[in-house]
Amino acid sequence: VAGFEVIGAVHHDIVASHDIVVDGTDNFETRYIVNDACVLNKKLNVYGSIFRFDGQATVFGAQEGPCYRCLYPEPPPPGMVPSCAEGGVLGILPGVVGTIQATEAIKLIIGGGNPLIGRLLIYDALAMTFRTLKVRKDPDCPICSAHPKITSLLPSSEYRHLCGVTEEEVGVDPSQIEQISAKNSAPLLANGSAKFLDVRSPEEWQITHLPGAIHIPLDDLLERVNELDSAQDYVVYCHHGTRSAKAIGGLQRLGFKKLKNMAGGIESWSTNVDETVPRY
After folding, report:
1. Radius of gyration over alpha carbons of the chain, in Å?
2. Residue 154 CB: number of other CB atoms within 10 A?
3. Closest CA to 239 of 42, 20, 61, 83
4. Which of 84, 141, 144, 163 is catalytic?
5. What is the pLDDT of residues 66-82, one digit of tens each?
6. Which residues contact 19 (CB under 8 A, 6 or more apart)?
7. Which residues on adjacent β-strands are paired with residue 262?
8. Within a 13 Å sphere around the CA of 243, how many CA atoms are in the beta-carbon half?
9. CATH code, domain with 229
């Protein structure tokens, strides 16, 4: 048994020396690396993912079943899908999906039951439902088809190029964004010397938000920018500070100058300012 917080192409030999890989990673680059290493080494990949209120699980890598690239031939455009840290996730989801993955791993070890090979299990926590979708092997898959184009693990740089988010793609120059800690933001909220702009999703806003904050989800920001005053001071926040930085990048291009990014987002506020603010 081996556990890793981060895995890269250099871990090819580690995958080769184990029978089953349980993938609970939170980024597309690592998922493609894990998938490719498992397929090339003929190892089973017990896959799980979570986002906001939903979870997925399946088993990739079996000879008769699909791989991750069959389900997701290419990643979504950079910045289109936030990570769990950026988008938030219901706290119980890692436990639910992780338990499902552990169950699948045990079934594979003992050779019993009906593993989730060729089936994608989808859990909707809001509706409290489970459903399964059939996932077929892609005959044109670049790595697990009869005539694969990928016959060895790609260089790490190619995975980063495939899935990476560059400064140009998201339009954010970190050096041009003024950061402010949650603790130093608190007096600005108390005395009203700055407006607080929350760019999280509507679901996250319902969970918790700072009193008096303006709520405009990042996806709606450009359409609703007329609701903001470019002469006003703003502290922009999200869950952890990533989406708010993207929002500031967009607003700066529209002429807004008095913008501060709350480092660590509302998570940092809960930790360092007000422990009664729910964490999620």
Report:
1. 21
2. 15
3. 83
4. 84
5. 999 999 887 765 555 66
6. 43, 44, 109
7. 180
8. 27
9. 3.40.250.10
Catalytic option among 67, 144, 163, 238: 238
Strand 44-51 relative to strand 129-134, pairing: unpaired
Please check whether residues 147 and 174 belong to one and the same domain.
no
CA 76 to CA 87: how far, in whole Å?
Answer: 15
Is 84 assigned a catalytic role?
A: yes
**Are 177 and 258 part of one and the same domain?**
yes
Is 70 considered catalytic here? no
Per-residue pLDDT of 91-143, as tens digits, reads: 899 999 999 999 999 999 999 999 999 999 999 999 999 999 999 999 999 99
Q: How far apart are CA 209 and CA 224, in angstroms?
A: 19
Give 155's contacts (C-beta < 8 A, 6+ positions apart).
Answer: 9
Whether residue 221 sits in one domain with residue 134:
no
**pTM tops 0.70, yes or no:** no
Q: Could you count the other beta carbons within 10 Å of the beta carbon of residue 259? A: 24
Residues 6+ apart with CB under 8 A from 115: 59, 62, 104, 107, 108
